[in-house]
Amino acid sequence: MADKESCDxxxxxxxxxLHTLEALMALLLxxxxxxxxxxxxxxxxxxxxxxxxxIEAQLQILGQDILNSLDYAEYGQDSPLKKDILxxxxxxxxxxxxEYHANTNRVVNSSEIMLNSSTATILESIAIKKGIAxxxxxxxxxxxxxxxxxxxxxxxxxSDNAVIVTKRVLLSDSDFPGTNSSDFRSNTGIVDADxxxxxxxxxxxxxxxxxx
Length: 212
Hints:
alpha+beta
């Protein structure tokens, strides 16, 4: 009788071990399938969303570097960006595959081609050569305290993946010798926001960049 019970117990133990082994094998198979699935569907540099995020980050850095370099000035000197704003005639320019050409309906007392512009030079040498579309908009404060914007460079509607970088430039009455401030105001519409101080206006330069 004891021998029979021992045999039954051994048989039961063997069966339990087999069931345990089968469960472990099934678990390993499930884990293997999960790992394979995750690796097959995980984001890679070729995945659309990751690639777009990578491009946007690159454009953000590039755009900020462009504005930072334009806004750099040695002590006592105006930055190239500030000079371009002071020299602006109020026209809207578009890249026409060879040069920045003014919208003839908005040209004010100036050539139709953007000349002597550091902004145009750096955008042509970097953005244009890299196939990066771009707009540059100038915003200022009206005497009422509201803001007003006009395009300096306009190359079409940005894509959904466009990035925007900004830089502020302070204009003072002392930046306009003689009667130049009235000519500047007449051409651009940028007014003296405070007649009682040397403060003229605060310009917000907005650069929008996107891949075509």
